Amino acid sequence: MPRLPRVRAAAGRLQDNPVAGHKRVLLAAPRGYCAGVDRAVVAVEKALERYGAPVYVRKQIVHNIHVVTELEEKGAIFVEEVDEVPEGAHVVFSAHGVSPAVVNAAADRGLHAIDATCPLVTKVHREAVRFARDDFEILLIGHDGHEEVEGTAGEAPEHVTVVNSPEEADTVVVKDPNKVVWLSQTTLSVDETMETVNRLRTRFPELQNPPSDDICYATQNRQVAIKKVAAGADLVIVVGSSNSSNSVRLVEVALEYGAKAAYRVDYAEEIQQEWLDGVETVGVTSGASVPEVLVREVLDAIGDAGYRDVDEVKTAEEDLMFSLPKELRQDAAGQRDARALGGRASGGGA
Hints:
By secondary structure, the protein is of the alpha/beta class. The protein has helices at residues 35-51, 65-74, 100-108, 119-133, 147-153, 166-169, 190-203, 217-230, 245-256, 292-304, and strands at 24-29, 55-58, 76-79, 90-93, 112-115, 137-141, 160-163, 180-184, 235-239, 261-265, 281-286, 310-314. The strands form three sheets. The protein has a five-stranded parallel sheet with strand order 10-9-11-1-12.
Protein backbone atom coordinates (compact mmCIF):
# COMPACT_ATOMS: atom_id res chain seq x y z
CA MET A 1 0.00 0.00 0.00
CA PRO A 2 2.49 2.67 -1.19
CA ARG A 3 2.15 6.27 -0.04
CA LEU A 4 2.91 9.34 -2.12
CA PRO A 5 5.48 11.67 -0.53
CA ARG A 6 4.00 14.84 0.87
CA VAL A 7 5.38 18.18 -0.31
CA ARG A 8 4.36 21.05 1.96
CA ALA A 9 3.47 24.31 0.26
CA ALA A 10 5.38 27.42 1.21
CA ALA A 11 3.70 30.00 3.45
CA GLY A 12 1.94 32.71 1.50
CA ARG A 13 1.24 30.48 -1.50
CA LEU A 14 -2.38 31.67 -1.53
CA GLN A 15 -2.75 35.33 -2.39
CA ASP A 16 -4.83 37.87 -0.46
CA ASN A 17 -6.92 39.15 -3.34
CA PRO A 18 -9.69 41.70 -2.69
CA VAL A 19 -13.36 40.69 -2.50
CA ALA A 20 -16.50 42.79 -2.28
CA GLY A 21 -17.15 42.16 1.42
CA HIS A 22 -15.43 41.04 4.61
CA LYS A 23 -13.38 37.83 4.52
CA ARG A 24 -14.18 35.35 7.27
CA VAL A 25 -14.13 31.66 8.19
CA LEU A 26 -16.96 29.59 9.66
CA LEU A 27 -15.32 26.69 11.46
CA ALA A 28 -17.64 23.74 12.08
CA ALA A 29 -17.79 22.01 15.44
CA PRO A 30 -17.81 19.13 16.07
CA ARG A 31 -15.24 18.10 13.48
CA GLY A 32 -12.30 15.71 13.26
CA TYR A 33 -11.50 12.67 15.37
CA CYS A 34 -14.36 10.74 16.92
CA ALA A 35 -13.92 8.37 19.85
CA GLY A 36 -13.87 5.27 17.65
CA VAL A 37 -11.12 6.63 15.42
CA ASP A 38 -9.09 7.78 18.39
CA ARG A 39 -9.42 4.35 19.99
CA ALA A 40 -8.18 2.63 16.83
CA VAL A 41 -5.20 4.94 16.30
CA VAL A 42 -4.16 4.72 19.95
CA ALA A 43 -4.50 0.93 19.72
CA VAL A 44 -1.86 0.77 16.98
CA GLU A 45 0.41 3.20 18.84
CA LYS A 46 0.14 1.19 22.06
CA ALA A 47 0.64 -2.12 20.27
CA LEU A 48 3.90 -0.75 18.87
CA GLU A 49 4.95 0.40 22.35
CA ARG A 50 3.97 -2.90 23.94
CA TYR A 51 5.18 -5.42 21.38
CA GLY A 52 7.69 -3.45 19.31
CA ALA A 53 7.79 -2.96 15.55
CA PRO A 54 6.56 -4.26 13.30
CA VAL A 55 2.89 -4.50 14.14
CA TYR A 56 0.70 -5.41 11.18
CA VAL A 57 -2.64 -3.76 10.41
CA ARG A 58 -5.25 -5.26 8.10
CA LYS A 59 -6.42 -2.49 5.73
CA GLN A 60 -6.04 1.15 6.73
CA ILE A 61 -6.67 1.50 10.46
CA VAL A 62 -8.83 4.53 9.62
CA HIS A 63 -9.42 6.15 6.25
CA ASN A 64 -6.90 8.96 6.41
CA ILE A 65 -3.64 9.01 4.47
CA HIS A 66 -1.87 11.26 6.99
CA VAL A 67 -2.69 8.99 9.94
CA VAL A 68 -1.63 5.89 8.01
CA THR A 69 1.66 7.47 6.93
CA GLU A 70 2.50 8.56 10.48
CA LEU A 71 1.84 5.07 11.83
CA GLU A 72 3.98 3.55 9.08
CA GLU A 73 6.83 5.80 10.19
CA LYS A 74 6.43 4.42 13.72
CA GLY A 75 6.68 0.81 12.51
CA ALA A 76 3.18 -0.26 11.49
CA ILE A 77 2.89 -2.35 8.33
CA PHE A 78 -0.44 -2.17 6.50
CA VAL A 79 -1.58 -5.21 4.54
CA GLU A 80 -4.66 -6.08 2.52
CA GLU A 81 -5.30 -9.51 4.03
CA VAL A 82 -4.08 -11.53 6.99
CA ASP A 83 -2.34 -14.08 4.76
CA GLU A 84 0.32 -11.39 4.18
CA VAL A 85 1.14 -11.34 7.91
CA PRO A 86 3.95 -13.64 9.14
CA GLU A 87 2.70 -16.49 11.30
CA GLY A 88 2.67 -15.66 15.00
CA ALA A 89 2.87 -11.87 14.47
CA HIS A 90 0.59 -9.21 15.96
CA VAL A 91 -2.16 -7.90 13.71
CA VAL A 92 -4.66 -5.12 14.36
CA PHE A 93 -8.11 -5.18 12.78
CA SER A 94 -9.15 -1.73 11.58
CA ALA A 95 -11.88 0.50 13.01
CA HIS A 96 -14.19 -0.56 10.16
CA GLY A 97 -14.50 -4.12 11.44
CA VAL A 98 -13.96 -7.55 9.90
CA SER A 99 -16.06 -10.57 9.13
CA PRO A 100 -15.85 -13.84 11.10
CA ALA A 101 -14.00 -15.33 8.12
CA VAL A 102 -11.14 -12.86 8.65
CA VAL A 103 -11.04 -13.59 12.38
CA ASN A 104 -10.85 -17.31 11.64
CA ALA A 105 -8.15 -16.83 8.99
CA ALA A 106 -6.03 -14.91 11.51
CA ALA A 107 -6.49 -17.65 14.10
CA ASP A 108 -5.51 -20.31 11.56
CA ARG A 109 -2.18 -18.51 11.04
CA GLY A 110 -1.54 -18.26 14.77
CA LEU A 111 -1.71 -14.46 14.68
CA HIS A 112 -2.12 -12.38 17.83
CA ALA A 113 -5.15 -10.36 16.77
CA ILE A 114 -6.11 -7.04 18.36
CA ASP A 115 -9.61 -5.94 17.42
CA ALA A 116 -9.80 -2.14 17.02
CA THR A 117 -13.30 -2.23 15.48
CA CYS A 118 -15.31 0.83 16.50
CA PRO A 119 -17.84 -0.27 19.14
CA LEU A 120 -20.60 1.38 17.12
CA VAL A 121 -19.73 -0.85 14.16
CA THR A 122 -19.64 -3.86 16.50
CA LYS A 123 -23.20 -2.94 17.52
CA VAL A 124 -24.34 -3.25 13.90
CA HIS A 125 -22.55 -6.62 13.62
CA ARG A 126 -24.47 -7.89 16.64
CA GLU A 127 -27.73 -6.66 15.16
CA ALA A 128 -26.99 -8.57 11.95
CA VAL A 129 -26.31 -11.76 13.92
CA ARG A 130 -29.48 -11.35 15.96
CA PHE A 131 -31.79 -10.73 13.00
CA ALA A 132 -30.22 -13.53 10.98
CA ARG A 133 -30.77 -15.89 13.91
CA ASP A 134 -34.46 -14.92 13.80
CA ASP A 135 -34.47 -15.62 10.05
CA PHE A 136 -34.98 -12.03 8.91
CA GLU A 137 -33.76 -10.82 5.56
CA ILE A 138 -31.40 -7.90 6.20
CA LEU A 139 -31.25 -4.96 3.80
CA LEU A 140 -27.89 -3.39 4.56
CA ILE A 141 -27.82 0.22 3.36
CA GLY A 142 -24.24 1.06 2.46
CA HIS A 143 -21.56 1.03 -0.20
CA ASP A 144 -20.71 -2.36 -1.64
CA GLY A 145 -16.97 -2.99 -1.27
CA HIS A 146 -16.48 -0.71 1.75
CA GLU A 147 -14.65 -2.56 4.54
CA GLU A 148 -17.40 -1.87 7.04
CA VAL A 149 -20.10 -3.26 4.76
CA GLU A 150 -17.98 -6.35 4.00
CA GLY A 151 -17.52 -6.98 7.71
CA THR A 152 -21.19 -6.57 8.60
CA ALA A 153 -22.41 -8.63 5.64
CA GLY A 154 -19.91 -11.33 6.57
CA GLU A 155 -21.69 -11.88 9.88
CA ALA A 156 -24.71 -13.29 8.04
CA PRO A 157 -23.94 -13.61 4.33
CA GLU A 158 -27.00 -15.76 3.57
CA HIS A 159 -29.32 -13.13 5.04
CA VAL A 160 -27.79 -9.81 3.86
CA THR A 161 -28.50 -7.85 0.69
CA VAL A 162 -26.59 -4.57 0.23
CA VAL A 163 -28.62 -1.57 -0.93
CA ASN A 164 -26.24 1.02 -2.35
CA SER A 165 -28.59 3.91 -3.04
CA PRO A 166 -32.19 5.14 -2.92
CA GLU A 167 -32.54 4.03 -6.53
CA GLU A 168 -31.60 0.45 -5.64
CA ALA A 169 -34.36 0.48 -3.02
CA ASP A 170 -36.82 0.58 -5.91
CA THR A 171 -35.54 -2.67 -7.43
CA VAL A 172 -34.21 -4.84 -4.58
CA VAL A 173 -35.92 -8.23 -4.34
CA VAL A 174 -36.73 -9.94 -1.04
CA LYS A 175 -37.99 -13.46 -0.33
CA ASP A 176 -40.52 -12.56 2.34
CA PRO A 177 -41.66 -8.91 2.52
CA ASN A 178 -43.21 -9.61 5.93
CA LYS A 179 -39.89 -10.50 7.52
CA VAL A 180 -37.35 -7.88 6.51
CA VAL A 181 -35.25 -5.37 8.46
CA TRP A 182 -32.87 -2.58 7.47
CA LEU A 183 -29.43 -1.86 8.92
CA SER A 184 -26.86 0.66 7.68
CA GLN A 185 -23.22 1.51 7.35
CA THR A 186 -22.35 3.95 10.15
CA THR A 187 -20.81 6.71 8.01
CA LEU A 188 -23.55 7.51 5.52
CA SER A 189 -25.49 10.68 4.80
CA VAL A 190 -28.39 10.73 7.24
CA ASP A 191 -30.71 12.32 4.68
CA GLU A 192 -29.89 9.88 1.89
CA THR A 193 -30.18 6.90 4.22
CA MET A 194 -33.65 7.95 5.33
CA GLU A 195 -34.66 8.49 1.71
CA THR A 196 -33.57 4.90 1.02
CA VAL A 197 -35.49 3.65 4.07
CA ASN A 198 -38.63 5.52 3.01
CA ARG A 199 -38.47 4.03 -0.47
CA LEU A 200 -37.98 0.57 0.99
CA ARG A 201 -40.92 1.02 3.35
CA THR A 202 -43.16 2.07 0.47
CA ARG A 203 -42.49 -1.32 -1.11
CA PHE A 204 -42.26 -3.31 2.12
CA PRO A 205 -44.63 -1.82 4.73
CA GLU A 206 -43.60 -4.42 7.33
CA LEU A 207 -39.94 -3.33 7.14
CA GLN A 208 -38.48 -3.25 10.65
CA ASN A 209 -36.07 -0.64 12.01
CA PRO A 210 -32.81 -1.41 13.83
CA PRO A 211 -33.10 -1.20 17.64
CA SER A 212 -31.23 2.13 17.59
CA ASP A 213 -29.60 4.45 15.07
CA ASP A 214 -26.88 2.74 13.05
CA ILE A 215 -25.39 5.96 11.65
CA CYS A 216 -22.89 6.95 14.33
CA TYR A 217 -23.23 10.01 16.54
CA ALA A 218 -20.06 11.57 15.10
CA THR A 219 -21.21 11.26 11.49
CA GLN A 220 -24.57 12.79 12.37
CA ASN A 221 -23.02 15.60 14.43
CA ARG A 222 -20.59 16.58 11.69
CA GLN A 223 -23.36 16.64 9.11
CA VAL A 224 -25.56 18.82 11.34
CA ALA A 225 -22.66 21.26 11.86
CA ILE A 226 -21.80 21.54 8.17
CA LYS A 227 -25.47 22.11 7.28
CA LYS A 228 -25.43 25.20 9.49
CA VAL A 229 -22.08 26.38 8.12
CA ALA A 230 -23.00 25.76 4.49
CA ALA A 231 -26.01 28.04 4.64
CA GLY A 232 -23.70 31.03 5.05
CA ALA A 233 -20.66 29.92 3.07
CA ASP A 234 -19.52 30.76 -0.45
CA LEU A 235 -16.98 27.94 -0.27
CA VAL A 236 -16.66 24.90 2.02
CA ILE A 237 -13.38 23.04 2.47
CA VAL A 238 -13.64 19.54 3.94
CA VAL A 239 -10.41 18.01 5.22
CA GLY A 240 -10.42 14.25 4.69
CA SER A 241 -9.25 11.46 2.41
CA SER A 242 -11.01 10.29 -0.74
CA ASN A 243 -11.73 6.83 0.71
CA SER A 244 -13.31 8.31 3.83
CA SER A 245 -17.04 7.84 3.37
CA ASN A 246 -18.01 10.36 6.04
CA SER A 247 -15.66 13.01 4.58
CA VAL A 248 -17.06 12.59 1.07
CA ARG A 249 -20.58 12.84 2.50
CA LEU A 250 -19.70 16.17 4.14
CA VAL A 251 -18.92 17.67 0.71
CA GLU A 252 -22.25 16.43 -0.61
CA VAL A 253 -24.17 17.74 2.40
CA ALA A 254 -22.47 21.14 2.16
CA LEU A 255 -23.55 21.53 -1.45
CA GLU A 256 -27.07 20.32 -0.71
CA TYR A 257 -27.48 22.84 2.13
CA GLY A 258 -26.40 26.01 0.41
CA ALA A 259 -22.65 26.18 -0.12
CA LYS A 260 -21.89 27.66 -3.53
CA ALA A 261 -18.87 25.37 -3.86
CA ALA A 262 -17.32 22.59 -1.76
CA TYR A 263 -14.08 20.66 -2.07
CA ARG A 264 -12.32 17.88 -0.19
CA VAL A 265 -8.57 18.04 0.50
CA ASP A 266 -6.12 15.82 2.32
CA TYR A 267 -3.72 18.71 2.94
CA ALA A 268 -3.78 22.50 2.89
CA GLU A 269 -1.44 22.66 -0.10
CA GLU A 270 -4.20 21.16 -2.28
CA ILE A 271 -6.31 24.34 -1.96
CA GLN A 272 -6.44 26.14 -5.29
CA GLN A 273 -6.25 29.93 -5.61
CA GLU A 274 -9.20 30.02 -8.01
CA TRP A 275 -11.46 28.44 -5.36
CA LEU A 276 -11.15 31.70 -3.41
CA ASP A 277 -12.00 34.07 -6.27
CA GLY A 278 -14.79 36.38 -5.10
CA VAL A 279 -15.28 34.35 -1.89
CA GLU A 280 -16.16 36.24 1.27
CA THR A 281 -17.00 33.34 3.62
CA VAL A 282 -15.14 30.02 3.77
CA GLY A 283 -16.59 27.12 5.75
CA VAL A 284 -14.12 24.58 7.12
CA THR A 285 -14.70 21.15 8.62
CA SER A 286 -13.07 17.72 8.70
CA GLY A 287 -14.09 14.09 8.61
CA ALA A 288 -14.14 11.85 11.67
CA SER A 289 -10.73 10.32 10.93
CA VAL A 290 -8.84 13.61 10.53
CA PRO A 291 -6.41 14.92 13.17
CA GLU A 292 -6.88 18.56 14.15
CA VAL A 293 -3.37 19.51 13.00
CA LEU A 294 -4.52 19.20 9.38
CA VAL A 295 -7.42 21.59 10.00
CA ARG A 296 -5.03 24.09 11.59
CA GLU A 297 -2.83 23.93 8.51
CA VAL A 298 -5.86 24.75 6.33
CA LEU A 299 -6.70 27.72 8.56
CA ASP A 300 -3.10 28.93 8.31
CA ALA A 301 -3.13 28.58 4.52
CA ILE A 302 -6.36 30.49 3.97
CA GLY A 303 -5.22 32.97 6.61
CA ASP A 304 -2.43 33.90 4.18
CA ALA A 305 -5.20 34.75 1.72
CA GLY A 306 -6.86 37.11 4.18
CA TYR A 307 -9.32 34.76 5.86
CA ARG A 308 -8.17 35.40 9.43
CA ASP A 309 -11.48 36.17 11.12
CA VAL A 310 -12.57 32.72 12.39
CA ASP A 311 -15.98 32.08 13.96
CA GLU A 312 -16.63 28.61 15.36
CA VAL A 313 -20.13 27.27 14.65
CA LYS A 314 -20.82 24.71 17.38
CA THR A 315 -23.88 22.50 17.18
CA ALA A 316 -23.01 19.74 19.70
CA GLU A 317 -20.61 18.73 22.46
CA GLU A 318 -18.87 15.35 22.32
CA ASP A 319 -17.32 13.66 25.33
CA LEU A 320 -17.76 9.96 24.49
CA MET A 321 -14.79 7.67 25.19
CA PHE A 322 -14.29 4.00 24.38
CA SER A 323 -12.09 1.53 26.24
CA LEU A 324 -9.10 0.24 24.30
CA PRO A 325 -9.01 -3.41 23.18
CA LYS A 326 -8.55 -5.61 26.25
CA GLU A 327 -5.00 -6.63 25.26
CA LEU A 328 -3.87 -3.01 25.55
CA ARG A 329 -5.55 -1.80 28.75
CA GLN A 330 -2.55 -2.77 30.88
CA ASP A 331 1.12 -1.96 30.48
CA ALA A 332 3.89 -4.55 30.23
CA ALA A 333 4.03 -4.75 34.04
CA GLY A 334 0.35 -5.58 34.26
CA GLN A 335 -0.73 -2.17 35.56
CA ARG A 336 -3.71 -0.32 34.13
CA ASP A 337 -2.41 1.99 31.42
CA ALA A 338 -3.17 5.70 31.66
CA ARG A 339 -4.45 5.60 28.08
CA ALA A 340 -6.92 2.76 28.66
CA LEU A 341 -9.61 5.01 27.21
CA GLY A 342 -9.64 6.52 23.73
CA GLY A 343 -11.43 9.74 22.85
CA ARG A 344 -8.68 12.33 23.35
CA ALA A 345 -9.87 15.78 22.34
CA SER A 346 -9.11 16.76 18.76
CA GLY A 347 -10.65 20.23 18.69
CA GLY A 348 -14.03 21.42 17.62
CA GLY A 349 -15.84 19.58 20.36
CA ALA A 350 -14.60 16.14 19.31
